[in-house]
Amino acid sequence: MTYTGSAPPFGRALCAMITPFTESGGLDLDGARRLAARLVAEGCDGLVLSGTTGESPTTTDAEQAALVEAVREAVGDGATIVAGVGTADTRRTIALASAAEQAGADGVLVVTPYYSRPPQDAVEAHFRAVADASGLPVMLYDIPGRTGTRIEPDTVLRLAEHPRIVAVKDCSYDFLAAQKVIAATELAYYAGCDEHNLALYAVGAAGYVSTVANVIPGRLRAVLDAFDAGDTATAARLQRAAVPLIESMMAAGLPGAVTAKALLKRLGLPAGPVRAPLRPASAAATEVLLAAYAQATGPTA
Predict the structure, then answer these.
(1) pTM for this entry
(2) Which one from 3, 141, 189, 208 is the annotated catalytic residue?
(3) Distances from the Cα of 213 to the Cαs of 17, 21, 51, 148, 275, in angstroms?
(4) Does the active-site annotation cover 115?
């Protein structure tokens, strides 16, 4: 593999798993177990729970802990579990990290505090406080398009010195900064935007945390496998084949949780509704998604 540090702390091919709900809107733990087992069987090394795609803003603390417990029961030691615990409140984030550890998570995903838009010294202090309080390794989540605040590269470099801050989920769209941090630290970088999966991997990232992996886990894993085997032409072809689905799921105006659940439901897999304020995909949007899915999984893909 291309990652130049030690073994990637959470694996290479991680899925940002949806949170299945029942048709009445409750947490579907049986569905979560079945979906998690399928994702691991089809190539996922790890599962990220209660992130953006997992609808963390509308799930309760108790639901998030129960989800970790259920998925751990389903996958055992066959995959890592990273629990999303980031909030706009440092104290609550620390409490969620502790609950995730008790529930059986292997690591925590901590997003930049949102809405209050803290300056960089406060951003750094927030992450250090969580890492100091947690017994689990931390994956920083840099997604300024949602949080309103970047984790600036210099801040990441300083945070890399903390022994429990080991990884970054990168949704910054700053490819230059990502390469600079990869070159200067032992942090495991994970592409958080599916269109960057191969590009970041090729310059030393550890792998990806993918929303699209909810529906094509094996196809995305095959990109990394081909690259690791030295078949860069096949890796590039497989990445390109996934682009129409990536675009339909992630760049067509609907959140990834909505598009992933629309596809999973039509494929007969655990999903259920999204929670308000999100709304389900329309019938027309779902047909577009299904067409892109068929293209991505067809014999020429």
Answers:
(1) 0.96
(2) 141
(3) 8, 19, 14, 26, 21
(4) no
